[in-house]
Amino acid sequence: MAAVAMAASGVCLDCGEPVGTTDSFCESCGAELAPLSVSDGRGDSLGACEICPASHISADGYCESCGRKVRSGRDHQEIDLRMVAGVTDRGLRHYRNEGAMALAIADTGNGPAVVAVVCDGVSTAAHSDQASLVAVRAGADVLLAAVRTGGDPLTASGAAVRAAADAVARLPVPTGDLPSSPSVSAVLQSNAVTVCRLGDSRAYWLADRASAAEQLTRDDSVAEEMLADGVLSEADALASAQSHVVTRWIGADVSDPAPHVVHFEPPGPGAVLLCSDGLWNYPPEPAKLAELALPAAITDPRGAARALVGLRSGRRNGQRDRRPGPVPPARAALAGRLPAPGRYHLT
Q1: Which one of 147, 194, 266, 327 is least enclosed by Cβ atoms within 10 Å?
Q2: How far apart are CA 202 and CA 206, in angstroms?
Q3: Are the beta carbons of 78 and 103 closer than 8 angstroms?
């Protein structure tokens, strides 16, 4: 990606003048050296064939192995920044991709920092595709600015959700329409991770030992409430008709917009996964996700994210299984880490 090459080369690719390794902007021409990468259907989208994902895609968008037309724009988009990568896919259930993601890397005095935001759509809400896109951009802008200026990621995470909510509220939609979007974000700095979420999009810590993998967030959903109240078991709650009914989200009709924030200090090597329910439903267990994603997630986040998103459609290694039902949309962002020991707490 050009944003990474600018800082790594030591020169601004816009004007050719020298830049520092920790500079966010070129002092000569003002160009942003490490801008956000957003799944808005534009830019360097690394498309892949859904049937044979390892195959080459021709310049006119066809798979050179099976001849299928590869979906373009926001239908399927991939972002690869090396340290962090993401994949978003429309699936076959919706006629448009209602989710979005924004990723960025910023060089700081303590080394590179990663910012990632994933927003899903709410199927019953109008204009969810617009809501998710403006929400990821507004939220990631706040987080990236805080990282660059040495701000507190815990405080910035709350501010990012408020900025996202304001952006959604300003959408030019008909009166009575209430665009909505669940959200999860992460800021990875040195040996600590700050996760913030509202809704049922999740964050996982995928440890190099699968048994040590953890789900870092709890869902704002009817299923989670039934589980907490002891009404149903986890399996029964997930199998119920209300399993994916969210109770909080980013939108104008939310009475309690305060997000949940997690400060996590990983105990060893691993990766952070942010994903929508279209992915964690296949499967939700942290250990299983870790087995599927690692060790590739640490050295090849894009490849691991692509494999995870492909899994929920029943496609693995170019083959399709016989899982019935429509293929749901899914988003996944993965950042590989080799951190120092620590722990996490919820606030």
Answers
A1: 327
A2: 12
A3: no
Sequence spans of domains, the chain: 75-346
> Residue 279 in contact with residue 309, Cβ under 8 Å?
yes
| Whole-Å CA distances, 123 to 120, 127, 244, 317 | 9, 9, 10, 30
Question: Which residues, other chains included, contact 108 with Cβ-Cβ below 8 Å and sequence gap of 6+?
Answer: 22, 147, 148, 150, 189
pTM for the whole structure: 0.80
Average predicted confidence (pLDDT) for the chain: 79
Q: At what angle do helices 286-293 and 301-311 cross, to 10 degrees?
A: 120
Give the C-alpha separation, 46 to 82, whole Å.
13
Task: Count other C-beta atoms under 10 Å from residue 135's C-beta.
Answer: 36
φ and ψ at residue 157, rounded to 5 degrees: -65, -45
pLDDT at 71: 67
Query: 299 is written with which tokens?
Result: 């050295």
- Can you name the residues that pair with 204 across neighbouring β-strands? 215, 273
**In angstroms, how far is the first alpha carbon of the chain from the final one?**
35
Q: Kindly indicate the confidence band of residue 334, based on its pLDDT and cuts at 50, 70 and 90.
A: confident
- pLDDT tens digits for range 52-93: 766 788 876 788 888 877 766 787 888 999 889 998 887 666
**Cα separation, 99 vs 173, whole angstroms:** 18
Report the C-alpha gap between 90 and 76 in whole angstroms: 6
pLDDT digits (tens, 9 = 90+) for 18-55: 877 556 678 888 877 778 899 988 754 445 676 776 67
Per-residue pLDDT at 102 = 95
Residue 330 CB coordination number (10 Å): 28
Confidence of residue 307 (pLDDT cuts 50, 70, 90): confident
Our CA angle for 13, 17, 18, nearest 5°, is 100
What's the CATH class of domain 75-346?
alpha beta
